[in-house]
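Structure ticket #2291
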Amino acid sequence: MPDILAFDTSNYTTSTALFRDRKIYQQKHLLPVKKGELGLRQSDAVFHHVQQLPDLLEELLRQTPLQDLKAVGCSTRPRTQPGSYMPCFTVGHGAARQTAACFGVPLHTFSHQQGHIAAALWSAGRLDLFERPFLAFHVSGGTTEAVLTQPGTEEPFTVTLLAQSLDLKGGQAVDRVGRMLGLPFPAGPELEKLAAQSQVQFRIHPSMKGADCSLSGIENKCLKMQSDGRPAADTAKYCLCSLLAALDAMAAALLKEHPSLPLVFAGGVMANQFIRKALTEKYGACFAEPAFSADNAAGVAVLTARREGLL
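Resolution: structure written out below.
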């Protein structure tokens, strides 16, 4: 069967994936972040991608050797909007170009956001949504956006920004509260475990401006809870409840303008099972499994396979 090889070098994770016979095999590794810090400078991210990508590719191909490479795909920019750029993506793009040139196969490029959305559709078993409009939420350390996604011609789908966070992004709020509570970066998994220990019920009134949200108040409130001596589990749960309330309000506002459209949630923050359960029960929303929520090259592999007529 034909193989598709894909690369994604985001500001958080080095990742590569292989698509074969409607299955995805992947290798990925978080970029190393020093204790107490909330991310990397782009120059450091580029350096670590250069160091990590060969090891990951060797391990991927050791476990699943190439048989018949048909095409290579990669993410080259954060979003599809003009001017969207981040140096870390040049590492994956360069590796993809070299591989495509060596094998004499086509190279397909996409945005990191398109990859996230495609990974969510793949993981949720909803590839049918490629053929119709839907609302996609991309919630991560660098992005909290809701977009209208429609079938494209030159692109696999077009993306129109409808709503966003006006200040902190979802992942930033989670990681800042996590650092406050002494949790490792990225803080999402440990914050979720900590929040599960709280029995407190919160009534949250999210800060909204139309369908846009403001998340900076989450950090401020959690700082006060900590200074007041509230249990760490309660602070963690308040953070997640507040993020859920904001996403819920965004979804409700957008569905008034675009009734009946399916909802898809992608991005690393959406690996949270507490948020997933609530929004799935209320809206029947689609979520990626955790392995396909965090940054990954799987979505790029899916998009490349579609371009090549394999999906």
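Closing remark: The radius of gyration is 19 Å.
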